[in-house]
Amino acid sequence: MRNISVRQLYYFINVAECRKISEAANTVGRTQSAVTAAIRDLERELSVTLFERYASGVVLTAAGRELLPRAYRILREMEDATRSVKASKKDIEGTVKVGAKDIVAAYYVPAPLTRFRLAHPRIEVEVNEMTRASVEAALCAGEIDFGILPHRGDCAPDPRALSMLTLQHHFLHLWVREDHPFLNKESVSPSDIASEPYIIWTRDEFEAVTLANFATFGVTPRVVIRVSSIEAVRSLVANGAGVTIMPDLVYRARSLEGLRVETVNTLELFRGASAISLLWQPNREASPAAKAFREFLQKEASGFSAPRPSERGRKVSMSEP
């Protein structure tokens, strides 16, 4: 019974009503052979004959007469369910207010927001760039419905104050120019990386986290440039000014000049995945629009497989320097 389709039942009903396969095919807008094949597949699946075939047309068998009212009921229930789902989407309207960290607003929010608007065209989503502290304060004050923030596992919000749903994990990779010698090495050690001119991204706590990661291997990167702009980091690496380790969330293969940035997998070296999470106040009653937004992102997150940038080259070695 698993292989019976709504299409087969629809064709069956039309053949039963028209009593001729040719007329039923015209009614459903398909070829006679397609309708005939669908009826035969249905009979094979049920292990019964549904029609007696004659030169003048077809007549329902006893099995066909038993199936017909059930087929009507199944199609009617499918139509009712479809109308109900469409009506529920159409009826949900309102505004959802979201506060997001700038990096999240730029590199994560656009894609799921676009998909949500297609699914719920009558819900307006207002996204405002805010600092982490401002997002958490606005949530507690009831000024926004949700916050979307990046965080590391050891820096998660207090669950007693805010509920959290992890939307996406992201990891750290080494960025190098497209012809960098590291791409041809069997392994790259922490000391190899530390000996290269290093470009460090200075936003938030990232510089401190990077230096702490290197310190666990007893090395210090040779920092030549400190910069807060992600595009500046990408351009500097692409032009060969140095190497850097960055979150895969912000990876793009080309700099603004069109030069390529390659990556080396450092998952074994720099552990501790970061995440992007949806935050909300657990004690605040959510509007229907806010519930729809949260449920949509939750469904997306449950089926999410984090994309990885191109990983040409070798993994870094875990050997001590």
Map the helices and strands.
Blueprint: H1 6-18, H2 21-28, H3 32-46, E1 51-54, E2 57-60, H4 62-91, E3 94-100, H5 102-107, H6 110-119, E4 123-129, H7 132-140, E5 146-152, E6 163-170, E7 172-177, H8 190-195, E8 197-201, H9 206-215, E9 222-227, H10 230-238, E10 244-247, E11 261-265, E12 274-280, H11 288-302
Parallel strand pairs: 3-4, 3-5, 8-9
Antiparallel strand pairs: 1-2, 5-12, 6-12, 7-10, 7-11
Order of helices and strands: HHHEEHEHHEHEEEHEHEHEEEH
- According to CATH, the fold-level topology of the largest domain is D-Maltodextrin-Binding Protein, domain 2
Indicate the proportion of strand residues. Answer: 15-25%
In the sheet with the most strands, the strands line up as 4-3-5-12-6
Q: Could you tell me the number of beta strands?
A: 12
What's the CATH class label of the largest domain?
Alpha Beta
Span from first to last CA?
Answer: 63 Å
Task: Provide the descriptors you would attach to this structure in a database record.
D-Maltodextrin-Binding Protein, domain 2, 321 residues, three-stranded antiparallel beta sheet, alpha/beta, 41% helix
Account of the protein in words:
Helix 9 links the parallel strand 8 and strand 9. Helix 1 (6-18) packs across helix 3. This protein is of the alpha/beta class and 321 residues long. The chain is elongated. The chain has two domains: 6-90, Arc Repressor Mutant, subunit A; 97-321, 3-Layer(aba) Sandwich (D-Maltodextrin-Binding Protein, domain 2), CATH 3.40.190.290. Helices cover 41% and strands 22% of the residues. The longest helix has 30 residues, at 62-91.
